Amino acid sequence: MSKKGKLHTYTRSHMGPAGIRTPFTIGFIELPEGIKLFSLLTQCEPWDKVLAVGMEMEMVIETIREDEEGNEIVGYKFRPSVGESS
Amino acid sequence: MRAVAIAGIGGMRFGKYVDRSLRALGEEVCIKAIRDAGMTPRDIQVAYVGNLAQWEWGQGLLIGHYVLREIGLTKIPITRVENGCATGSNAFHEAWYRVATGACDIALAFGVEQMTVASSEKILNVFTGRQHAERGGDMGNSAPGLFGLLARRHMEEFGTTREQMAMVAVKNRQYGSLNPEAQLTQAVTVEEVLKDRMICDPLTLPQCCPRGDGAAAVVLVAGKMARKYTPIPISVAASVQVSGTYPDDRSYTFFDTDVRAAEAAYKMAGLGPEDIDLAEVHDCFSVAEIVHYEDLGFCRKGEGGRFIEEGHSGIGGKTPVNTSGGLLSKGHVIGATGISQIIELVRQLRGQAGRRQVENARVALQHNGGGFIHTDTASCFIHILRK
Predict the structure, then answer these.
(1) Alpha-carbon gap, residue B202 to A14, rounded angstroms
(2) Distance between CA A58 and CA A81 in Å, rounded?
(3) Architecture of domain B4-120+212-228
(4) Contact A42, A79 (CB under 8 A)
(5) Label partner for B66 (CA 20 to 30 A): which of A19, A72, B59, B129?
(6) DSSP of B159-174, one letter per residue?
């Protein structure tokens, strides 16, 4: 699957599961394959100035959360594209 | 299918009942509904109970049997159903089906839930289904999150405003203040709603339904014998259940399940959205009600924000919605929610809604969405009731 897509929608969540520090930002990314992928968003502060529906996003690998024993769980997130603009 | 009518209703105020058992809550409303239908428990031939979970310790067993045994109702088929947030509506639908097919003449449907006994974290874990990776609970997904995402896209595409969403909470809390069975009874203003604690942008606390404890019950009878039990039988003109297909090839601004269920329900009743005098819809979050106006055909796509702003969904408007105060005032007492919506509509159609009464109400629609997978509700129930 593509690692780039467009931001379909986003929100700032002030509540969530144990292990993710609030507030955090989430969204649906529209991939070129026609799939909407739920993802945490990162490197997008201040989120309400930086983010916009339709903007280009790219995947990064980062810590998603901590489990009950304090281990870091690593996975994908999306950030506004910083690579060559398309 | 033969005609089916509602002959009895039994409601109670939703709230916090940690000192009462799940069984006691169910028992209270079942007795009320059976008495309201002028029956005794022995008249009931089949029963369906909606109960999503026994939140403190997980999945309990046989709740329907425990409740009904208390009122001397044994021997008959008793079945618990679960269908996410539409669990109560599913119980009603099954009871309707038994009578509509002629398998029996008198059925009881009730829902019961006790959520305040569990911690918020436990409830979040059940809701987000941490065992199902595709639901994204471990990655920060939640019910308020999904509706915050829906709201943002709706604002972007249609210009829906924060104020319009806040107006849904204001309207529903105003009606909740007139409903003795509502949990939250204090009216709020747009300014208060907007200034309150942010949950998932743009949804502040009063735009998110509270949880609660409570129960609700109805008695259904074959249409031909309804007048024996009630002076004002309320017929079930449509009872529809659909499940999600989770399409990706569309914008996240509506519920595909809503649209398909509404189409099937209008067809079954031989009616259209213009015939609906009032509705109870699943306002788990303020934005959800705006989207349901559109999905159910009360207004055109994208015009839901204006529909509330121009007063069309208020009492005296084109299609009054959630005169009970909705989930935003009553709380979402999951197993009981769908049946509680039906009770409000029966009261309205009987002319017993007091200060919330919609004049000349003859046709009413109930809508209840259940659960969430990806970008759609997993199930959707619509019932159309008629005086």
Answers:
(1) 11
(2) 5
(3) 3-Layer(aba) Sandwich (3.40)
(4) yes
(5) B129
(6) ---HHHHHHHHHHHHH
Report whether B361 contacts B387 (CB < 8 A): yes
Residues of B in contact with A35 (CB under 8 A): 248
Q: Mention every residue, 6+ apart, whose C-beta is less than 8 A from residue B264.
A: B238, B240, B242, B382
Using DSSP's 3-state secondary structure scheme, residue B38 falls into coil
Q: Which residue of B has its CA nearest to A7?
A: B153
Is the CB of B252 less than 8 angstroms away from the CB of A65? no
Distance from CA of A2 to the nearest CA of B (A): 16
Active site residues of B: 85, 332
Which of A24, A26, A48, A73 best tests the B interface by mutation, with the highest count of B CBs <10 A? Answer: A26
Q: Which of B75, B1, B72, B90 is nearest to B34 (CA)?
A: B72
Start-end of CATH 3.40.47.10 domains in chain B = 4-120+212-228, 137-207+234-386
Q: B266: part of which helix (H) or strand (E)?
A: helix B256-269
Residues of chain B with pLDDT under 70: 58-59, 128-136
What are the tens digits of pLDDT across the range B180-219?
999 999 999 999 999 999 999 999 999 999 999 999 999 9
Mean local confidence (pLDDT), A70-83:
92
Q: What are phi and psi of B293, to 5 degrees?
A: -50, -45
Contact A13 B200 (CB under 8 A): yes
Domain range summary for chain A, segments of one domain joined by +: 4-80
Note the pTM of the prediction, 2 decimals: 0.96
User: Alpha-carbon distance A45 to A71, whole Å?
Assistant: 25
The CA distance from B144 to A51, in Å, is: 19
Question: Domain B137-207+234-386: what homologous superfamily?
Answer: Thiolase/Chalcone synthase (3.40.47.10)
In this complex, the residue of A17, A38, A73 whose CB is nearest that of residue B124 is: A17
